[in-house]
């Protein structure tokens, strides 16, 4: 593999070495006013929009996982180590493939250099803030280790519930409309739920004992995605509890769970997307600003909850949220 060609920044950096995209962080044209029908359809169906490529990629992964890697559901009526270890290993493969792949490309091979990297610095290799004195090793411990176990625990319990018909199981024949609607709604539900869980974890006592761990990563990298205290990881994945109530097929549940498990990798890439010559979306500026400033951008860029509740920051020196307080916490 040839060495990466150093590429110049397209925007100058500020005195702290921060790079800022020309476009401010903002919201997609779905729930913003005024309604722009053409832009909305462009975002829903165009490249880099709602369906394509990210959501379709996760849907493809979940569909393949269900048809080719899931233990037969009739064997999951009891908690047995054979199928549980199978699920655990499959999830580890997903983690290492997705988080590890992004990390390898951006941080080991450094194929993009520091071009469009928000913070010029690479992850800390000698810092007492992190386990093992190393940010990446710390993040891998929490993401692949602790979060990997919690992710699998959710999956094992739900698969067992589906197998024993203790929760409603929706089929395509029952309701094709609801069956398709689930796939559309899951990323929206996730973002809505995440906003509230995230705000909750900024409540001082929870921040101090739980959420502080994620915020050690002021300069995040893909492995920072699920580098969270186990209490936070459990809360974070709990949006899937909706499947206890609303009838769904296990494939919907897998899509929701794997989306939760994998999406934080690109959400914390530390780079402005798209990367790999414009082919891979890695949009993380909205959430990067949260890691940088702490008290803004709790949610995502689809549902403008931060705008409605006055915590939106667009990253421009004189732009939206520029007057929000700067809070640095340990
Ligand atoms: Zn984060
Ligand atoms: Zn936070």
Task: Indicate the structural class.
Answer: mainly alpha
* Cofactors and ligands: zinc ion
Helix count from the secondary structure assignment: 10
Name the average pLDDT: 92
Q: What's the structural domain tally?
A: 1
Percentage of residues in strands? under 5%
Uncertain ranges: 1-6
In N-to-C order, the SSE pattern is: HHHHHHHHHH
The separation of the N and C termini measures: 39 Å
- Number of strand segments: 0
Oligomer: single chain
- Largest pleated sheet: none
Helix content percent band:
40-55%
Shape: globular
Radius of gyration: 20 Å
Write up this protein:
This protein is mostly helical. The protein has one domain (52-112, 122-295). The chain has ten helices and no strands. Helix 2 (54-69) crosses helix 8 (250-267), helix 4 (135-163) crosses helix 7 (230-237) and helix 5 (176-201) crosses helix 8. The longest helix is centred in the middle third of the chain and has 29 residues, at 135-163. The chain is globular. Mean pLDDT is 92; it is low at 1-6.
How would you describe this structure in keywords?
single chain; 330 residues; mainly alpha; binds zinc ion
């Amino acid at each position: 593999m040839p060495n990466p060609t150093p590429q110049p920044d397209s925007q100058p950096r500020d005195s702290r070495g921060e790079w800022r995209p020309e476009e401010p962080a903002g919201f997609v044209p779905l729930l913003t006013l005024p309604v722009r029908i053409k832009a909305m359809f462009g975002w829903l169906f165009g490249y880099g929009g709602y369906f394509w490529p990210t959501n379709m990629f996760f849907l493809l992964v979940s569909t393949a996982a269900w048809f080719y890697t899931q233990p037969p559901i009739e064997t999951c009526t009891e908690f047995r180590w054979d199928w549980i270890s199978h699920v655990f290993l499959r999830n580890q493969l997903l983690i290492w493939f997705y988080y590890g792949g992004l990390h390898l490309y951006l941080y080991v091979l450094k194929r993009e250099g520091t071009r469009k990297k928000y913070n010029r610095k690479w992850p800390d290799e000698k810092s007492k803030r992190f386990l093992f004195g190393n940010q990446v090793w710390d993040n891998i411990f929490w993401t692949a280790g602790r979060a990997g176990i919690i992710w699998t625990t959710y999956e094992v319990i739900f698969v067992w519930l589906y197998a024993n018909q203790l929760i409603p199981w929706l089929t395509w024949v029952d309701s094709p409309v609801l069956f398709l609607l689930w796939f559309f709604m899951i990323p929206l539900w996730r973002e809505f739920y995440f906003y509230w869980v995230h705000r909750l974890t900024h409540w001082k006592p929870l921040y101090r004992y739980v959420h502080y761990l994620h915020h050690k990563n002021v300069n995040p990298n893909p492995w920072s995605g699920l580098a969270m205290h186990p209490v936070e990881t459990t809360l974070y994945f709990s949006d899937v509890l909706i499947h206890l109530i609303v009838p769904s097929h296990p494939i919907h549940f897998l899509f929701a769970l794997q989306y939760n498990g994998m999406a934080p990798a690109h959400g914390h890439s530390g780079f402005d997307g798209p990367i790999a010559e414009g082919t891979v979306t890695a949009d993380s500026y909205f959430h990067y600003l949260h890691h940088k400033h702490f008290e803004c951008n709790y949610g995502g860029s689809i549902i403008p909850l931060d705008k409605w509740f006055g915590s939106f920051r667009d990253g421009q020196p004189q732009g939206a949220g520029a007057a929000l307080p700067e809070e640095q916490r340990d």
